[in-house]
Amino acid sequence: MKLQKVEPLSVEFLKSIDFSWHTDEDDDTPYLVDELIEVSEEEAEAYAEAANELYDMYVEAGDYVIENDLLHDINIPFNLVEIIKESWENDVHWHLYSRFDFAGGLDGAPIKLLEFNADTPTVLLDTAIAQWAILKKNKMDEERQFNNIHQAIKENFQRLVTLEESVENFGEYYDGWKILFSSIKGAQEDEDTTKYLESIAKEAGFETAFAYLEDVEFSEEDGIFYNDENYEFFFKLVPWEDIAIDEGGLATILTQIVNNKKAIILNPAYTLMFQSKAFMKILWDLYPNHPLLLETDFEPLEGAHVQKPAFGREGENVTIIDDEGEVFDSKEGHYENFMPVFQEFTELNRDDDGAFYHAGVFFAYEGCGLGFRKAVRPIIDDDAKFAGHVIKG
Asked: For the chain, first and last CA: distance in Å?
């Protein structure tokens, strides 16, 4: 890996763009790395192609899961099965945006899928805005980056209306529809991310509002309301599995709202199916030894492998087992009640100082942007930092 030193963005600038997690609280160090990873045009294109190919594979595998009634096998909560099937079968439930996490892709290392953040992906402002701003601040060519996230999501908002690849006729279809954006009160990064998405939707031409989830009114018969205003679209940066487990009543109401065609929810419920790490076992069964996949099973594998919960974040409840069957690294967490999934171990990208990196590729109708998380351990957890990139040449 080659790293290029840059002048970092000031805290004042980051605050001005509502980037609130600029400093790590534990050691008061910057969250954004003051180095850019040099990526070749071929490597950037390979990341984009990997995301595009994998999304097509996920769609094919999704059909297989639904047709063979395998939602229970991938640990989907029972009270979301109906809404997942309904959202999958109706094309109006458009997948807005997501993020693939990859190992490899640099210096000849093969790209391998680690997981798919299909439901509530964060690291969005970091990838779409902050790393672009670093290029601008350092008087570098802003085009030398695989980063079309803002425009891609804007067009995907418009596809909610056109329901087709082209958005040129958006104005002919749009009829004043509104999108309500929500996150949980007290989760600042989620709130900032949600409000950034709201700003893109406004730019796309929608009427919008933001409300904390607790302030939104839900009616099975009439739909979704805030301040007595009805909203045809509802974006929630709240994981579907959390709704199923912690807000079972809301899960039931949302199912009826979707069944009654009173609102469209973003991201759709079927993205929880993609979000499940157990889904990668289905992928492996359907595409055995595919070059982008790692062997994944519901039972421990021979040799080095990683145990993960079907649903989990920030590396919690992840354990790495070495070739001798010993624990190499592990992290405790809050997701131990989800089923375990076992995935073949693969090396992450590493720099000369031994730090670990994985690539995140955002997907909004197509692969649209690249960023990296940097950590001092192979489990990329909430202590990881964000590293931007520049396309060399």
From this structure: 15
